[in-house]
Amino acid sequence: MAVCFLVATVYLYKTRNPGAGAVLDAFRARRSGVEVEATGVVTRRLPDDLEGSKHQRFILRVGDQTVLVAHNIDLAPRVPVSEGDTVQLRGEYEWNQLGGVIHWTHRDPSGRHSAGWIRIRGSLYQ
């Protein structure tokens, strides 16, 4: 009975937020290099990562999972996020034990990688 309830809950959640399913599935399967689109809520802003290419970082709650978003601000504009904001994004998911990282949320200037983006309050950042 519990398995049926869990399957129904996951199915209902995926139909409401289809992109969340891709992130949750990748995390549970420990998969990396997965292109995902998701909508989530910013739960925490972190200091920029200034080693190598500069990245804006924040934690996004997608379904029952949190994931780190690492947005390259050497290649794309900074996204004006605050805690509690709802964000839509497209990028590449990389698994880790803490929930994973979504990066490549911008265009690839060399054209070798799928373009990602972040959308907040009707504005698109890539």
Describe the structure.
The protein has 126 residues and is of the alpha+beta class. It has a single domain (2-125), classed as Beta Barrel (OB fold (Dihydrolipoamide Acetyltransferase, E2P)), CATH 2.40.50.200. The protein has helices at 2-16, 18-29, and strands spanning 34-49, 55-62, 65-72, 86-94, 101-103, 117-120, 123-125. Strands 1-2-3-5-4 form a five-stranded mixed beta barrel. A hairpin with a 2-residue loop joins strand 2 and strand 3 (65-72). Helix 1 (2-16) crosses helix 2 (18-29). The chain is globular. The relative contact order is 0.19.
Main attributes of the structure:
2 helices, 5-stranded mixed beta barrel, 7 strands, alpha+beta, OB fold (Dihydrolipoamide Acetyltransferase, E2P), 126 residues
What percentage of residues falls in helices of 4 or more residues?
A: 10-25%
The tally of strands reads 7
Approximate shape: globular
* Oligomeric state: single chain
CATH topology assignment = OB fold (Dihydrolipoamide Acetyltransferase, E2P)
The first-level CATH class name:
Mainly Beta
Beta-strand fraction estimate: 35-45%
Which helices and strands appear, and what pairs or packs with what?
Elements: H1 2-16, H2 18-29, E1 34-49, E2 55-62, E3 65-72, E4 86-94, E5 101-103, E6 117-120, E7 123-125
Parallel strand pairs: 3-5
Antiparallel strand pairs: 1-2, 1-4, 2-3, 4-5, 4-6, 6-7
